[in-house]
Design goal:
single chain; mainly alpha; 12 helices
Length: 295
């Protein structure tokens, strides 16, 4: 049984890599949130994302060193996700392993972008048209962008109205934190769950607006402000997860109703005895045996 099955967070190099990855992702979220809030204040609605936020970090003082640190952290995180997907030390099942593999691929692609940025290969690409502009310029590109935005809207609504699948408070309680730390972690985790849904709504609405006006514009400035606030919540959640590693949910947990009130048949201490053999020749209806034959 793995450490995650016992309700413990990952330890050793796996835990250190996970912490580094969460810290790096929180930094990128914070940079993207800063750009979104700046757009909301300045009134510019130019669309952007994680890559634009990373470019902003690179242009800051000591930006190259910060990009190198982010690349190391995301590389370690990608390696940890790949280990969980291939070796499955936590016995999480094929669905969780597939999610780990997708996370490893996404973070590895971001690491490749960071390396190209360090080498100066992304400077010319940043001056050209954005990916959204290229997509809108293609035949039927606006319909593809609009369909993708509609899908994000539906997914965001589902995230906001669907109850969480896991008990976050129970996982945090298993860490043995103080009351203040447990309350903060629970609040940040709940806010991040809502922020993910709101982020999908903001991005989906921005894509549909860009498809409607046929320009890579993120829509009204207040959308960038909402997106910036959501990204701040996600950044706080990533930094909190880097500080307090949450254990994975055990795969074979019994349902809550079954764990609290098992069926009555399982609570019975003994089973009814099987009916014994009965001699039909001496049935109660036949009465006592009569006298034998007279001699």
């Amino acid at each position: 049984m793995g450490e995650a099955d016992r309700g413990n967070p990952p330890a050793g190099w796996l835990g250190a890599a996970t912490r580094a990855g969460h810290a790096a992702k929180g930094t990128i979220y914070a940079a993207a949130a800063t750009l979104g809030l700046w757009r909301a204040v300045s009134g510019t609605g130019v669309a952007g994302g994680a890559r634009e936020a990373v470019r902003a970090i690179a242009e800051a003082p000591f930006g190259k060193a910060a990009i190198a640190i982010l690349a190391v952290g995301l590389s370690a995180f990608a390696a940890s996700r790949l280990t969980l997907a291939l070796l499955d030390p936590e016995s999480a099942g094929w669905r969780r392993r597939a999610l780990h593999l997708v996370g490893a691929a996404f973070n590895a692609a971001l690491v490749v972008f960071l390396v190209h940025l360090l080498l100066g290969d992304e400077t010319a690409a940043a001056e050209g048209p954005t990916r959204l502009a290229r997509s809108l310029a293609r035949p039927r590109g606006r319909w593809i962008v609009a369909g993708f935005g509609a899908g994000l809207l539906v997914r965001g609504i589902q995230r906001l109205i669907r109850p969480p699948r896991e008990d976050l408070a129970a996982r945090i309680e298993s860490l043995g934190l103080s009351s203040a730390a447990a309350a903060w972690t629970t609040s940040v985790g709940s806010a991040a769950r809502l922020a993910r849904g709101a982020t999908l709504l903001a991005v989906g609405g921005g894509l549909m607006y860009a498809a409607a006006v046929r320009a890579p514009i993120a829509g009204p400035a207040w959308i960038s402000g909402v997106l910036g606030c959501c990204l701040l919540a996600l950044a706080a959640n990533e930094w909190t997860r880097a500080r307090y590693l949450l254990p994975e949910r055990p795969r074979n947990d019994p349902p809550a109703a079954e764990a609290v009130s098992p069926p009555a048949a399982r609570m019975s201490p003994t089973r009814p005895a099987a009916p014994g053999y009965r001699d039909r020749r001496r049935s109660p209806r036949s009465g006592p045996p009569g006298p034998g034959p007279s001699e």
